[in-house]
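INFO batch 0412 | record 1 of 1 | parsing
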Amino acid sequence: MSDSDAQRRADVAVRAAAAGADVAADSFRTGIDVELKGSKTDVVTQADRDAQTAVIERIRSAFPEEPIVGEEEDALKEVPETGPAWIVDPIDGTNNFVDGIRAFGTAVAAVEDGEPIAGGAVFPALGDTYRVGPEGIFRNDESVSVSEATDPETCTVCPTAWWDLNERDRYAALVRSIVTRFDDMRRFGCAQLELMLLASGAFDGVVTDVRMNPWDSVAGVRAVREAGGTVTDLDGDRWRHDSRGLVASNGGIHDELLAAVHEIDSNNSTNRSGNRNH
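INFO prediction complete | emitting tokens
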């Protein structure tokens, strides 16, 4: 795909994300009704559905024939392996949105043959818009990039995504590994925001051993790469939308971040052994 086509898709992604974010912002802190999709904490609102409709309308007006992968309702759930497609998260950070916390937004990614090529993300309550394309990554029209930190003891790392109740021992092990290897830890409950913060130098790493949904990750992954960072799977291979786990960094601490996530299995193996012996 040419740079000019990718730039056009970045423009559409930002406009579409802005349309969805406007819908979300109109409902923020208005006492909206909440429904459960699955577990007790997997929630959805009418604003999620309305925001996705607004995003899809914008994409369809520019690219009417291209498939759209989205979190809510009838949108596709798997990223096509060939050709162009779009990935939509109408409200990333829905739990934050419901609780009146400002860390939520709308993210849109354009992909070609499964690879992200452009994206946009708008966080209306924070006042931040990210545009990601072949010319770089911009926050509110200003170019940003990953940090230059290389000393883990000065770095901040975010454990992103979430673990099922029966896997919280893995989350606890990762948190312990992070806080013993790095300076500090942050978590915002909005994966796309966390990846954008990494891309703009606020974080130095973002990591999980959980398989991420494409709508929670692809736009942010493109942002990190465009900002000069590194994104791999748990084995250090190039991350794809169907990878298990996600290890994203500024590049300078990537090996240490991989070691941190690998320590999960080491700790759990020791704990399981200890439990059996007990």
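INFO post-check: Residues 170 and 264 are 6 Å apart (CA to CA).
INFO record closed
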